[in-house]
Design brief:
Blueprint lengths: L1 E6 L7 E5 L11 E8 L4 E11 L12 E6 L8 E5 L6 E4 L4 E8 L7 E10 L10 E4 L2 E4 L8 H7 L4
Parallel strand pairs: 1-3
Antiparallel strand pairs: 2-9, 3-8, 4-7, 4-9, 5-6, 5-8, 7-11, 10-11
Protein name: CUB domain-containing protein
Organism: Rhynchophorus ferrugineus
Keywords: Disulfide bond
Length: 162
Amino acid sequence: MCDYQFESTEQGPAYGKFYSPRYPSSYPKNIRCSYRFRARSQERIRIIFEGIFLQKGDLSCLNRADLIRIYDGKTSSDPAIGVLCNEGGEIEILSTGSELFIEFVANSDTPGQGFKARYQFQTMENNNIENQNANRLGGFSFPTEVEPSVSEASVNNMLKGI
């Protein structure tokens, strides 16, 4: 088990990066990691997954052994706002409040490379998205320039586990 905590402070940086274990090498089998983010009052958390390279499989996350679950709160008991399991372009997650919990579960026999992501603590009134060429989908944002092999149906299938 691996647990990481990121907390917003007046002295510390308001942004950073985080990764799956051993990234960019393959992550270990049978691992469960948690990433807890706590912003100050009047802040929320913005996560951008820059690359997700998990176990290969079908587009649905329903039967995948390796996945990333995102919860809008401080534990896995809070509402799930995302389940990610496929390779893809940048995906943005934005919390509604000051806490966010991410769980990475890897149970496959053939682990992938993992993921890399960055986080930012931002004030509630700062709702601007860096990339104005993004389509919002719930708590997610996808670039408008999607690879030709990714169809709207593929994106919908990828999000069915939410």
